[in-house]
Structure formats: C-alpha cells, structure tokens
Amino acid sequence: MKRYLPLFVFLIGVAWIASNSRPSQTLPCTCNLVTFGKLPVLSEGRIKPLDTVARNSLLIIHGKQSLRLDDGRILQPTDWLADVFFRASIADNYPAFVINNPEVLGLFGWQQNERKYFPFSALSPFLGKINEQAQQAEKITSANRTPYQIAISNLRNALMLYQRLKNSLYPDETKDFSAEILDFQKSIPAGLEATIRHSKGESFNQKALDQFTQYFDRYETMSDMAYILAIPRDDKSSPDAKWIPLGASLLDSISTDRISSVTVNYAALGDAYRAGDAESFNIRADSLSQWMAQYEARATHRAAYEFLFNQLDPFYQAMGLYVFAFLVICISWLCWTQELNKGAFYLLLLTLAIHTFGLVSRMYLQERPPVTNLYSSAIFIGWGTVIIGLILEKIFRDGIGAICAAAIGFTTLIIAHHLASSGDTLEMLQAVLDTNIWLATHVVAITTGYSAMFLAGTLAMIYVLRGFFTCSLTKESAQSLTRMTYGVLCFATLFSFVGTVLGGIWADQSWGRFWGWDPKENGALLIVLWCAITLHARWGGYIKQRGLMMMALFGNVITSFSWFGVNMLGVGLHSYGFMNKALPWLVGFMASQLLLMILASFPYSSWRSFRKSLQYS
C-alpha cells in the first residue's frame, strides 16, 4: 500500500488541476458569452480578449474577479461586462464599488456599517464631489497621501473606468442601436448639406442639421470616453490602419459613406442581449468571431490563447498545489517518510510544470522575457526558487529542499496575487525596461539572484526554528542545512554580481553613465557586498554554522529591501510607484528576520536541539 502513496499524491494534484480548469457558469444564460469573451479588442496599448477586460476591470472596481449580488447570485466577469455594455441601467444597481474608508462614507452622509459594496446608482449623485476631492488628493505625492485621499482617488478612478466601459460599445439609454445606426446613415447626406449651407450663411434645413449634430455629438462622446478600441478598420491598405472606438467608426462613416460590418454586428449583438434574444446574440457573436479570425487572425489567435490562460489560471492552480505539497512534506516527517517525500517531489514537479506554463504563456502574450514588472518578478523569483529547491531535494533527499520550494513558491505567488489588484499585469512596459536584450540578461540575472538569496534565507530560518524550538535538528541535519545554504549563497553571489554589472552596462547605454547611486542600484550592490562578506567570513573562519545562518537571515532583509523597498521610496529611475499596502508587510518581514537573528544569537544551551549535545558549533 505504501509504495502507491507517491502515485496517489500525484493523482490528487492532477485532480485538483482538472477540477479548477472547468469554466464556471453560475448564472443560467443561453447567450454564448464564451465566444463573446474571446473577441479581441485593443485596450491599454495591447490586444486582449473581452474576458481579460472584464476580469481586470472588475478587479479594479470591485477588488475581486466575481460579483455577488444582493440576492446571493454570483456574476462572472464576462456576465458583468455584458451587462455594463448593453444593460447599463441594470448594471448601475449592482453593488460593485468597494468603500471601506469611513471618511469617504461621511462625505456622502452615510454611516459606516457592515456594508462595503455600493452600486453606481447610489454614487452617481456625488460624482462632482468625488472628482473634486480626488483632484485635491492628486496634488499630493503618493507617498504622503492619507488613507482618505488614497481611498477617494481609487473610488474616482473606479467610477471613471465604469463610465468609460458603459460608453464603449453601446450608447447609454439606447433601446435599438441598430435602428439608430440606420437612421444616422440616412441623415448623413441631408445633415452634411445643411452643415455646408449653414457655414456659408445660406438657408438650410434646421431639422436635418439638428438631427445630424445630435448623432455626431453622441458618437464623438462615445469615441472620447471609450475604454476599448473594438473596431479594426476594414481598409488594411491604409498605412494608418488601426483599431478605433466604435463611436469613431460611426464618425468615419460620414466620409466613407459606409459603416463597418463589425460595428453593425456589435450593435445587433447589443440589441439582442438587451432583448434577451440568445439565438440572435449567438449568431452575431459567431459572425464577429469569424470576421476577426479572417481579417485579424493574429489578434484572434492571441486573444483566444489569453482566454484559455485566464480560464486555466495556472498561478492559482500552482498556489493550491504548493500548499498541498507543503502539507505532504510535513506529514512525511511524522510517518511514511520515504514514500511521502517521493510523492511530494513528484507533486512539486507537476506544480513546477504548471508554474512554467503560466510563465511561458505570459512571455508569449507579452512577447517579452519573463520579468517586466514587479508582478512578473514575483512569479519568476518563485519559479527560480522552486527549481533550485528541487535540485537540492534531488541531492540531499531529506525534504528540506522540497519544503523550501513549496513555501517560497506559494509565498511569491501570494505576493504576485496582491500585486495584480491594480489591473492588467501584462501592461505596457516601464520605459526603463523597454529593451529586450537587457530584459533577457540583466533583469533575469538579478531576479535569479533574488531567488537564491531568499532560498538561502529560508534554509537559515529552518535551521533556527528547528534548532531553537524542536529537538529535530541533529548534527547531520545541521551540517546538511549548512552545506545547502553555503552552496545557494555561492549561486546567489554569482548571479547578483553578473546582474549588477550587466545593469551598469545597460545604464551606460541608456542613460550615459555606468553608475548613478540610484536606490535600486544601491540595493543590488548591497546584495553583492553582503554575499561577498558572508562568503569571506566563512572562508576565513570568522563564522561557523550559526554565523552563516544569521548572515543568511540578514540577506533576506537586504534582498527584500532591494526588491520592494526601493520602490516605496518614490525616487530614482527604478521607482515604479509607492505601494502603501505593502509597506507594513515589508516591515513585518524584516522584523521577523531580525527576531530570528536574535534567537539565533542565544547560547546553544537555550536551543532544544543542542541542550544534550554541545560538542559542535
């Protein structure tokens, strides 16, 4: 029976992946929102499916990628987005906007209670007041804003995003957009003639001019406010062919005397959705999908792949599997050690495959190397750490490498999950990163160094916690942990040094100087110097096991500051925004490492593992 345990553990992991890969459909709807969600659009500088637009928008507005209604029903992202596009009067009453700050609630004369989600209809009377307060908050630097100023700015941004979505594909308060478009097309000749005659001071048809002006202003507003560019220009021979808003497409028809078939299909699709005509909706969605596949094949393929990526959600899958692997390893220390260790190792290989799939998918979708922003750095650091941890486990076979891989893999993915709350993680690159050759060398090398530093620090944490609080740290296991830590620190030194030098070469080519004492540069230098000091202290005999572990723990402090802390300073060429929510966690992590260093400094007589045996240090 025990020999089948590794296979059983592995199959549980496969079952977890299968159970979480099925598309969720919580509302009974016969409209084909899957095809609708795969339709490509241009938003925030890149092609993406409407499903991604829905997920990112709902995350920014609601803080989650699903919306629970007052009656207990749950809306999935694409369901919500379809309502926002085509049934705005209904979507306006969904409790989508999150308000936790009591001062913001007081601005509207509301009392704080258990309710924290509010509909647009309740907030719309206060739009002017919200915008005024947010403008005042924006005059203050991000690092110095109060919680109220941060909350009111976030609320204003969420409300603006919602209104832009409402004006992207379907005019608000329109009942039959298809009929309106036909009426607009018919009004163009008379409207243009009236406009020309009016400009010349000649007599003109006032009714025709008013009707034409009304449509023109309406579609111009749609074009200006649209969050997505959903219409590819039909004329691909034009050198300036590009994606445009639906409103702009209608305005183009004034000069071209024809309306894009994509615009017509979107209008009919919206009409069908409003009328609850699932059959017509599905026909129009299929027609749009086929048109895009024929004339925008590359965009359609990439959007379909991103839709699949969203459905599989590989990093969420990996998080659950890392936790499961961690628990299996913990149980293995109580019973069935060899079998469960082997099962955890296979499970981690499966998880690494899922993690790798997610990482490679992001590279394909963004057409960039793996590290382009803080979110992707967390993904990559976790991935690199898991690989190193599994190599250690393959060598030592004691569960230490595996448990470090599981713990750091999960932690970094949790960090990435919270970093994703700002919206699109496949965003356009910061200008400082927009060079493929250096993304593939400097940034990858330096983040690989981060991975190794955190792994060395985690091994040191295990050494201290096991030695101080348990009797499980034997002489053999202590020596094994020391060898692992030393080897990983050597690896970290190499990649941190190479990454820092490559960064200097990049800076010389990009900014005309090899070194400028930028906070990020200083952080990278601190890591290299600390690695060098640690290794020389070990070689010179100044530190032994415990000293090596204490220095590895402080390496966690330096690395976390270099990775996250410099971004919170709000200065320097490498600063990409002040993350006030992350500051307490960063300070807490640093404090925990310092506390472990204090525990490690206690005499061995205080360590439970060493009370009976003090012959080695």
Number of strands: 8
Global outline: elongated
Helix-residue proportion = 55-70%
Distance between the termini: 42 Å
* CA-based gyration radius: 29 Å
Can you describe this structure?
The protein has 617 residues and is mainly α. The protein has four domains: 1-18 and 309-429, no CATH class; 32-166, no CATH class; 177-269, no CATH class; 435-617, no CATH class. Helices cover 68% and strands 3% of the residues. It has 24 helices and eight strands. The strands form four sheets. Strands 1-2 form a two-stranded antiparallel ribbon. Helix 20 (436-469) crosses helix 23 (545-568), helix 21 (475-511) runs antiparallel to helix 22 and helix 22 packs antiparallel against helix 23. The model has no long low-confidence stretch (mean pLDDT 88).
Which terms would index this structure?
mainly alpha, two-stranded antiparallel sheet, two-stranded antiparallel ribbon, 617 residues, 4 domains
Spell out the blueprint of helices and strands:
Layout: H1 5-20, H2 33-38, E1 40-43, E2 46-49, H3 50-62, E3 67-68, E4 74-75, H4 77-86, H5 88-91, E5 97-98, H6 102-107, E6 117-118, H7 120-123, H8 127-138, H9 147-166, H10 177-199, H11 206-225, E7 231-232, E8 243-244, H12 246-256, H13 261-275, H14 278-295, H15 297-312, H16 314-332, H17 337-366, H18 374-396, H19 400-419, H20 436-469, H21 475-511, H22 519-539, H23 545-568, H24 583-600
Antiparallel strand pairs: 1-2, 3-4, 5-6, 7-8
Helix pairs in contact: 1-16, 1-17, 3-4, 3-9, 8-9, 10-11, 11-12, 13-14, 14-15, 16-17, 16-19, 17-18, 18-19, 18-20, 19-20, 20-21, 20-23, 20-24, 21-22, 21-23, 22-23, 23-24
